[in-house]
Model the fold of this input.
Amino acid sequence: MELTANTPFLRPAVPPAAVAGAAAWLATPLPAGSRLPAWSIEHLLLLFPLVAAPLALAVVAALRHEAGAATSGSLELARRLQPIAAALLVLSFVSPTGRGAGALALPWLGVAVASAGSGVSDAVRRRSALPAALVAAPLFLAVGAVWLVLARLGAGPRSYSPAMVSLAAAHFHFVGFATQVLAAATQRRLAASPRLRALCRAASAAALAGLPLLAAGKALALPFARIAGVGAVAVALLALSVTTTSVARAARRASTRALLVASAVSGAAAVGLAAGYGAGELAGREWIGLGTMTAAHGALMALGFTVCGLVAHLRLLRAP
Done:
């Protein structure tokens, strides 16, 4: 099914909700030492509902339409509710952690559950036209939203610090949901290259297995599971960087190529940074401070890998 600039959900390429969300995100950070300092875990996590979510949901809707899948009412509901839930999340993040902040985060959980409804429906009906990544992606979003609500409540497993709960939320949103959406969009552009298409599917499978392994390893104190999860996620990001670079080479517009290259380089750089931090931990040396690591790795994954990649694929869905 051919998509053009006249397709309703593709005009304009960047949804107005994402533009408004970007302005809100830039205006949201508070001075260091406050509840939401710039480039903190929480500040970077807030980028997802404000900016990445409207982009990703638009990509998912377009890919479903192209695959000939039936319109998902739950997905459309999620898209309509996203701006409201994101605005309430801003209030949640600038409020003290507790029941009030948790209540303000609940509408985002509703958006995630509505989105997950489309994934569950697709899995039950076994819609072979849709890549597995599109079926799995909304489920990751729902899990991430649960972690986000726990973070705003100040709750979570006893073995998790508050920072770890926020990190879990960030990982399920960006590494879980966004990676699967980007993998599905990238796979669509690789029809002429069976090997790269298979590599893209492998990236999706590695991310699908890696994140649950990483979460289980942390929650149950299982070093092997944690190492396996980190390795699988690293392989997924590197494989997706390779396939994204191939898509960039075929893109006609220089601006789209630049966005795709930025996404690919950011994903690979995030893996390298995490590997350097992990090596420092094993050596008993702090080569990279935790604050620097969080800000740099988070910015690479959120802004470079996710946002640049999603904007590029929205542009490709309008015109190669």
Q: What stands out?
A: The first helix runs from residue 16 to 27. Residues 12-318 form one domain. The two ends are 15 Å apart (CA to CA). Residues 133 and 180 are 5 Å apart (CA to CA).
